[in-house]
Amino acid sequence: MARSVFARPVAPRANWRRRYVAWLVLLDVLAALAASRTVVTLLADADAGFWDQRVLGNVSSFSLAAFVGVPVGWLILLVASGAYDQRALGLGTEELKRVARASLAMAAAVSFLALGFKKDLSRATVAAIIVCLLLYTLVVRFAARVVLRRIRRTGRASQKVLLVGRLVDALALHEVVTRNYGAGLHPIAIHLPHHPRPGERVNAPVPVYVGWDLVPLVQQLGADTIAVCGPASLESYELRKLAWQLEGTGLNLVVVPQVTDVTGPRIHVRPIEGLPLLNVDEPTISGLSLLAKSVLDRVTALVGLVLLSPVLFAIALAIKINDPGPVMFRQTRIGHEGRAFKVWKFRTMYTDAEQRLATLKDRNESDGLLFKMKDDPRVTPIGRHLRALSLDELPQLINVLRGQMSLVGPRPLPTEDDDYRGDVRRRLLVRPGITGLWQISGRSDLTWDDAVRLDLHYVDNWSLVYDLAILWKTASVVLARRGAY
To answer: Where is the Bacterial sugar transferase domain (predicted)?
Structure first.
């Protein structure tokens, strides 16, 4: 008997998602209360002479509005901005963008209400409320992300996914999502569109099904998401029919496009006569954003060199005491548009390291253009500690200040310009960086192909927000000493 379109078996909703959103609501309320407390304290401080004295004279009424109106209004604006949408939570920059949009809406709302009720709030007061709201909310959301990632590392708090498509496409997606557990996708099975050919072996890390009705299979497996992998997985009418079948079931449908390694603002969906067209813009490797990146790099490098000068001096002294020879190591690297430059690093190897390299070539653990050994005998004792914490890279702030490098970008390699051939040459379209996507994704533990893929992904999708996210993750990767040798 055909199933009625009005009777849908509903999939059980993920309890972890409801709990996570509930915790976010509580944390956001606490952040709003903390922001209000900060501003009220400043207003009540007799030494805060720059605050509007008319506000100081009515602190009690302002406190009532701050501790009741601000938290309630902040939650309403966060909801309106989609800051609790499950698709934006826990990964990427979209959640942070929505919080930032809510803060702008809060500024407009506070100003409008002050004007409507003829309340004289100083600009400093409004600015303090908005800055504190944004800062405290981002802090608690970053903390929530850290906790969520640790939970997901154990396999919990993730979407259970049925992969639908050709085996090669399903296995490719399985590899990507299992490598990045923070994405919150946990593949539990694969469904093939066709039976394997006679004699063809099917090897997969999860159970493989063929010829099932997808919705009953998902519900039997206890999954909550169907991921259609690759363009040949389902015909267009089959995909539309599947979307209809999922209506009212609570199941999620994810379609993996044929276009890979392209994300963010470069992708736009433009529907025409019911046909969704995926617009892919060309990479932005010039213009005003690149100028802003260059200015930010140089200013940060200058400030960093000044603030870190005691640390740099202490490291230089330790190197000199540990092993006679120069403190700095300078080597020719290939940079932006194939231009060679001398990179600055603290010396971490013995002075005869280059001469000893020939005897170690057969022990190379890298499959690309670099020589890598976990227990390289040429590295000094102090050098091992410097490499583990990436402190040997700090002098490269000089290269950043001179415009030869950037804070974030593909790592400059000690090779010749002729070694960059084919797709690898795209790494040279941007300035090399002190840190990059390669460094926060595994560093020396990655294969050469994975490192190149990550670098090209960065070149094709870079933005200032992306740079800030990479810098934030770099700190945790360095402190964990992952892949550093």
So the answer is: 293-479
Note the pLDDT of residue 117. Answer: 62
Domains of the chain (ranges; CATH) run 15-152 (no CATH), 159-258 (3.40.50.720), 288-480 (no CATH)
Mean pLDDT value across the chain: 80
Q: Give the residue-averaged pLDDT of 140-160.
A: 87
3-state secondary structure the chain: CCCCCCCCCCCCCCHHHHHHHHHHHHHHHHHHHHHHHHHHHHHHCCCCCCCCHHHHCCHHHHHHHHHHHHHHHHHHHHHHCCCCCHHHCCCCCHHHHHHHHHHHHHHHHHHHHHHHCCCCCCHHHHHHHHHHHHHHHHHHHHHHHHHHHHHHCCCCCCEEEEEEECHHHHHHHHHHHHHCHHHCEEEEEEEECCCCCCCCCCCCCCCEEECCCHHHHHHHHCCCEEEEECCCCCCHHHHHHHHHHCCCCCCEEEEECCCCCCCHHHEEEEEECCEEEEEECCCCCCCHHHHHHHHHHHHHHHHHHHHCHHHHHHHHHHHHHHCCCCCEEEEEEECHHHCEEEEEEECCECCCHHHHHHHHHHHCCCCCCCCCCCCCCCECHHHHHHHHCCHHHHHHHHHHHCCCCEEECCCCCCCCHHHCCHHHHHHHHCCCEEECHHHHCCHHHCCHHHHHHHHHHHHHHCCHHHHHHHHHHHHHHHHHCCCCC
